[in-house]
Amino acid sequence: MLFGEHGVLQGKPAIVAAANTRIQVTLTPRDDGNIHIDAGELGQLTTTIDDLDAQPPFQFVIEALLFCQNLLPSGCDLRITSEFPHTVGLGSSAAVTVACIGVLNHWLELGFDKVAIYKLGLHIIQKVQGLGSGADVAASVFGGIVAYTPPDIEPLSVDMPVSLIYCGYKTPTVDVVNTVATAAANEPDKFTQLYDDIGTGVQNAHTYLSAQDWPALGQEMDRHFRFQQQLGVSDPTLEAIIQRLAGIDGIHGAKISGSGLGDCVVACGVTPDDAVFADIPGAKVIPVTIAKEGLVCE
């Protein structure tokens, strides 16, 4: 997420980018009704077509299978590999959901275009989590940088220099959203204004992105971070990372990427060295660029 966290859940615009770190799902049909899922360190599961049950940690995968359960001609082996750990908050749930829909669409020849895959992916995310804006789903499907106002998707033909620093821990998105919702219920006027300000900031960021005005975009990131502090989703570690980034030449601005209270900090500018954050426990630079392609099936 580049801009618009939490506001997008209130119907405000957001800007999201696809990272070049990818998840791959490989499907091999079987000659029986068994389904075997192998996700490496995340674990394995063996079940059958008739016994599909969407339980962690494979609930997103199983929900994709359940959608087309009656169309499956046989069981299958699903091998899931990832270039990044699921703990870093890079939209891994959305990415694996989209990849599973994509491979099933390809195998069963369902004929879904990218918009249909996005809609089904959003449905699955919301069914499992009980909420979800769909911004990470849109990025996973379409790739690049996407301007997103639910449910409208506008791919932007622009790239940007981006840096990503993982803070070392992650708070589940649902927990953070519920924390913000409780605070908003106690101070409705304050949070209504915050969501409006976030939406205005996203519109400004859209303009700066289109003009490739990185200093102005960085200033908007800094401004967005102050909104995140007011939302209550920042903490000392995230603030230490952002403060450290502010002293690096070539970094124009930084903010929390994602729901907050963990996950990553995103910055506009050059990728710093890990040594810059050596005294911040858990902080780690994730080398990343913006992927021009989203879902690819072959």
Annotate the secondary structure layout:
Elements: E1 14-17, E2 23-29, E3 34-38, E4 44-48, H1 59-67, E5 76-82, H2 92-108, H3 114-129, H4 135-142, E6 145-149, E7 152-156, E8 162-166, H5 173-186, H6 188-211, H7 214-231, H8 236-246, E9 251-257, E10 264-269, E11 284-285
Parallel strand pairs: 3-5
Antiparallel strand pairs: 1-6, 2-5, 3-4, 6-7, 8-10, 8-11, 9-10
Helix pairs in contact: 1-2, 1-3, 2-3, 2-4, 3-4, 5-6, 6-7
CATH topology of the largest domain: Alpha-Beta Plaits
Strand order of the largest sheet: 2-5-3-4
CATH hierarchy class name of the largest domain: Alpha Beta
Tally of discrete structural domains: 2
Strand content: 15-25%
* Overall 3D form: globular
By DSSP, the count of extended strands is 11
**Helix fraction bin:** 25-40%
Query: What is the CATH homologous superfamily assignment of the largest domain?
Result: GHMP kinase, C-terminal domain
SSE succession: EEEEHEHHHEEEHHHHEEE
Q: Indicate the low-confidence ranges by residue numbers.
A: none
Instruction: Tell me, rounded to a whole number, the average pLDDT.
Output: 94
Q: How many angstroms separate the termini?
A: 27 Å
Radius of gyration, in angstroms, nearest whole number: 19 Å
The CATH architecture of the largest domain: 2-Layer Sandwich
How would a crystallographer describe the biggest sheet? 4 strands, mixed
The tally of helices reads: 8
